[in-house]
Records
---
Amino acid sequence: MSELTTILICMISAGTPIIYALTGDLIGQRAGIISLSVEGSMLCGACVGFMLASSTGSLLLAVLGAAAAGGAIGSMQAFLSISRKSNMMTTGFILIFFAQGLTTFFGRGQLGTSLGKSFSLAIPGLSKLPILGPVLFSQDILTYFSYLLPVAAWWALTRTRLGLLICSVGERPEVTEAYGYHPKRLQYGAVILAGVLAGIGGAHMSVIYAMSWANNMINGRGIIASSLVILCSWKPQRAYMAAYLFGLAQALQIFFQIHEVPVSMYVTLMMPYLFTLIALAVISTSKKPSMPEKLKIVT
Amino acid sequence: MNKERSAYQDFLLRALICCCAPLLLFAVLLLSQGKSPIAAYRTILTAIFGSAYGFGEVVVRATYLILTGLAASVPARVGLANAGGEGQMAMAALGTAVAGSTILASLPGWIGIPLMLLCGMLCGAAYAGVGVFCKLKLGMNEILTTILMNYIATYLISSLLFGILRDPKGWNYPQTVEVAPQLRLKSFFGTRMNAGIFIAVGASLLIWLFINRTRIGFTIRTIGGNQTAAVYAGIPVKRYQTGMFLLAGALAGLAGAIMVIGVEGRMRIGAGETMGFMGFLAAGMVGSHPLLLILSAFLIGGLTVAGNGMEINTGLPAATMQILIMLVLLTIMAVGGGKKK
């Protein structure tokens, strides 16, 4: 396998959990609620997903469990920031630590165990293509779904009534209400969906990418996903670019290793965060007409 | 809710829920794992009040939490949020430790200690400066920026401690050279408690006086109350915001400096971890009130110390206590905390 292929494979698999969390939070932000708690959802998804995958051996159960766990954190965020009108950022922050505590507590039996089973599933035919085959089509079922997710979100947000309603809540909830819909219900749905998707992304992280559980293994990826929504200018079709940019920053590690570049391991670990920060700084210089109106008040 | 009930009774009810609900939920959680909640709560109490050393640890943690909590409260007064206390504290600790073992090492204590504290404050303010620059010049969300900068600080410090700043005589342990002994604060009563707590409490008193009793403080409260009105009143809002954010960084930096000269004596990997985040939450718990912050800092400090006791006595991870702390905070948010704006 060539070096380029290895780096690209790593880029795709590091970017996949981000795509899930990013798309989820993007939908939530279009409805006017920023869920920093996607980080917590990812953690819970990773922990529950790994537990179920290692005890039942079923990927489907793992994903369902992870989605439920992520959704549970999402619904707490929804309740506190929609019904109780608490500061959404602080709420998200608290939920991250809550999820950290819970997963450390319940995941303590899973530490150090390895899954011993790979869920990768090459698509016959397509996986034989040069470069693209191993990079895109020799992954796993969750990654294949992630290819479709941003497009699906784009279609849903711009071409369906429900999606347009969700976007309208993020812009003018009074208008949505005047048309006889329930802004709060739509927000609840969007924020819980964000949690569910982030939970699935977390399951990808533990069950497929790392194949093990470690305390706090998400380590800021949810926060990065939440920040990358800005980089996408709240447009789901740009999620690929943002998530794989993160993936590439992560894959640099491999590049450094192959070429024996004398940089500290910690500097390479820092790269994804630095990349995100710099990317946000670059995008910030352009105007943000696409930012949902409701978010302009809080940020 | 019954509208006839007085506000006072309403407050008491909310306070009661905030005290009891987290303890009950936590007990259920422990029971589900076959652990006795009574033993756990006894462990918490003995870890905090059982020994002078334990209580000293609480005071030490409270010192950091008051300062990092102030670092979150001060910008909140001008409509900004600083979630970067963690990174600011860590960078300041590193800066102080390096200064204390190199350029400041030969100074006598009476001038050296204040300079060390100043050094920490400058480092913290400088790191916060990046965050406020991103906010005011580039329009980036300061919460996201400062959180990302926390991660960057952690990895930067790790790479330095494993690299050029590693103490050559430190048995290969990732830590800096120890600071000169005359630059250290004295510990009291055989614990790790030190004069830092007086600095922290003094800082929160000063901040309270500054915000509530001075002319500048009045301007600050105006900005916090209604930013648009403040702009129309001709107040240079951005300048005040910059100043307050740098002050916040300096306060978090003070926590880092006190950690180095009071407790650790050097910067080592993982020192002061999560204290910045917890400080942010301690501030959130009391609505950024500088004096009430002292109480919430002691509460959260006590619970984190108890977490270590839990790990030793019941075999549960120390992070278990994080669940209890967060349950308290979530309950406060859910019932409105008795704090009415």
Note: The interface with chain A takes residues 29, 33, 81, 83, 134, 138-141, 143-145, 147-149, 151-152, 155-156, 158-159, 162-163, 277, 280-281, 284, 316-317, 319-327, 329-330, 333-334, 336 of chain B (CB under 8 Å).
---
Amino acid sequence: MERSEKIGLGVALGGHAVLFGLLSVGFLATPNPETLKQQPITVSLVEEVGKEAVSPTPNVEPAQSVAPEEGPPEDAAPPEPVEAPPAPKPDPAPPAPAPKPAPPKPAPEPVAKPKPAPAPKPAPALKPQPKKPTPAPEKAAPAKPTPAKPSAPAAKPAPAKTATRAAASAAKPTTAARGSGNSPTATASKPRGSRLGDDFLKGLSDRPSTSKAEAAPAAKMGAQAAADIGSAIQRQVQPCANRQVNPGPGASRIRVTINLKLNRDGSLAARPRVVGHSGVDDENSRYVDRVDDLAIASFVGCAPLRGLPADLYDVQNGWSNFTLRYKLPG
Amino acid sequence: MNPVFNMDAATMSPVALFLQADWVVKFVMGGLLAASIWTWAIIIGFSVRLKRTRKDMTKFERDFWKADDIDAFHKAEAERDLPSARVFAAGVREWRHSTAGGQIDKGGTRERLATAMGAAAASEIDRLSDRLNILATVGSVAPFVGLFGTVWGIMRSFTGIASAQNSSLAVVAPGIAEALFATAIGLFAAIPAVIAYNRFSHGVNRIEAALNRFADGFHTTLSRQLDGSR
């Protein structure tokens, strides 16, 4: 080996060592090689289940707003003798209520007057009288019919009471509504709960409600939803289907059952798969393969399917894996 | 982590790629690396020698044509390790042999002179271009050897996929990278070898032409001497 060759060998060795050393310390290395990330995918195996409406019908019937009866109706207590003494006081009153609340009322007899004067009321009773014209329309007016009836001699006490009630309610429009058991209109209509205020016992019912407390219905793929999705897909695929050339007579009788694997955004996750046929007869049997291809081409061509309900994507039988039937147009 | 022996999968480090590789691929890589080193040694040594030879030959020929006394010049320069000097020495030797006797066959002497100097020139060119065939071999074979290493490494990484039951890129990529490294080394050795081979064969051809010109010139000189000496 000559001297020049020795020099060459030494230089070559040194050069290679330097080059590979530089490469080893990252001389030409990619600055930040992107790390390969794998997204884990949850796979759940679900056995085939019939497509029926499995979601419970939410009961929308509201509870009835019926208030309970407030005890049994009772007749008015007979006029008490004790109350007689105050009676004279309200004397001026009787003339006033008589004409106003019930102009036609013929019988605000003096007998009645002692009764309407329960002890607590004497003083207020006097005052309200000038005011009566205003309260009269609300309470006295409905009360009128009853006084009208009592004109019949049989039921004398009743008219009297209504009259007093009218007076009382006039005196205390709000508190008077709370009828106590001893001064109610016995024979008149039952006290209705609504008199306790419109929102009293709201939402409660005196009978068992037809609504049942159930968990909120989950979004499930019922037959209706499946049909809706199927028609939505058909509608979007139609432009592509119209573009396909009918391969021959009778080919449009072939119905291809096709299985779509869809992504959440409506794009195809895999190539559509033909899973079955119907309508194949002797005439068109040779076009089956062609129709399969055309069907797949239609779905691939109009691929990103829009507007499918997102909540039915990954439920059981959802449209992530959807099977529908396709037929050539025409 | 030692940066030199970075065993990270996503690295360009040749050492890491070499150490991760299969033994067949390692063998290929090692062979190719040796070929590359040998190629570069030849390239460097050859270019140095070629340049020096060309310079010395030019100087020798200039001196030769300027020299008055061939015998004196022969005494001074014939022992040099130079193609021109060897051819010159062969011519002078043949001349002395042929003119040693009383009777000189001019035609035979001319032929013998031409043959002797031609043989010396051919032998010098052979000696000069001795290493050139190594460059040619490396230049043509190294890519195939590297490709063999790559194919082997890729086969191995595919069997790795099959056994790992996982076709993700992270499983395949390192194996393929280290397999491709074999081809890279192959090309790394072959490309300079091919370039150098073409360049050096051109240089050797020029030296051969220069040597033949010198031999022809010397032959005409001797031939004239032969005619004049009678």
Note: Chain A is about 30% helix and 5% strand.
